[in-house]
Amino acid sequence: MSDLHSFNEALNARAGRKLLPSIAVGLGLIFLIWLSLAFERTAFALLVSLALVLATKELSSAFTSVGFLNSFRTLAVAVVAISLSTWFAGINGLALSMAAAFTLILLLSLRHGPENFVKRASSTGLALLYLPFLGGFIILIARPSNGLAAIMTFLVLIGCNDTFGYIVGVLIGKHRFAPTISPKKSVEGLIGSFVATTIGGAIAFHYILDNDWRYGAAAGILTVITATSGDLIESAIKRDMSIKDMGNLLPGHGGVLDRIDSAIFSAPAMYMALEVVKRIS
User: Fold this and answer.
1) 3-state DSSP call for residue 218?
2) For all residues of the chain together, what is the average pLDDT?
């Protein structure tokens, strides 16, 4: 038992995360997503909206800590409005609500005068693009009649990328992939992600979406590229602001944004892949 505890502690130290709480939280989130889509699909949009609001709170607090002023309450209202517009009006709702939210928030910022206006506009624009806009594509993936299957496939792709990149990186990772941005990431872990996510995508597209496995393999490759980009971008933001995690709400993961950073960057790619497959099938 002590050997198992020592092994677990060694894994935690090497990966920089607590493994068992991380797994428990991940499985719990997957169950919530499945439950919402299986029994009340609109609840899934509300669940995504809640996650995006919590992530916005973390990002807003981080911006404020380095002098980029913004109004979280205003951003939260915008996140909910954009999410619901996306669910009920599709990609047109996402585009129009995003444009309206950004314009209205900038107009509201004028009441504070010109001082720090650029900082407010910059932090607001980044927050809106980063979270409700990119995150809105998760909602778009779930909108069609096969939304449950599409989201489950998306989770398989994200899960394969994160899990096998983590495992391979912890076990045999030696060559740092981006040491100044994310020191824990390794070339070996990235290769593990590519292999596992390509295979996982092929299997998921064939058995869950009932589609050509080759499309799934291609979607898997695209997911690794976009998910890794999302991880690195969030890591760069945190390093620039000298913080380890965006929050501590999720044990083993950190904040909500730390958990969804790869998913929100991969969602537009997955949506595009599904749209292309639908048109050529």
Assistant:
1) helix
2) 87
Listed by start position, the domains of the chain span 40-143, 145-281
User: Which amino acid makes up residue 102?
Assistant: F
Strand 182-186 vs strand 176-178: parallel, antiparallel, or unpaired?
antiparallel
The DSSP secondary-structure symbol of 249 reads: S
Q: Are 34 and 19 in contact (CB under 8 A)?
A: no
Instruction: Look at residue 2 and tell me whether its pLDDT is greater than 70.
Output: no
Amino acid type, 222: L
Which tokens go with 74? 């205003």
Partners of residue 178 on adjacent β-strands? 182
In this prediction, residue 131 carries a pLDDT of: 95
Phi/psi for 175 (5° steps) reads: -100, 115
Q: Do the Cβ atoms of 16 and 245 come closer than 8 Å?
A: no
pLDDT at 99 over 70: yes
Cβ-in-10-Å burial (0-12, 13-18, 19+) of 49 comes to: buried
Contact (Cβ atoms closer than 8 angstroms) between residue 161 and residue 131:
no
Q: Residue 208 is which amino acid? A: I
Structure tokens given for 236: 């760069």
Residue with tokens 């070339």: 187
- Give residue 22's pLDDT: 63
| pLDDT: which is higher, 13 or 79 | 79
**Structure tokens given for 149:** 């299957």
Q: What is the mean pLDDT of residues 118-126?
A: 87
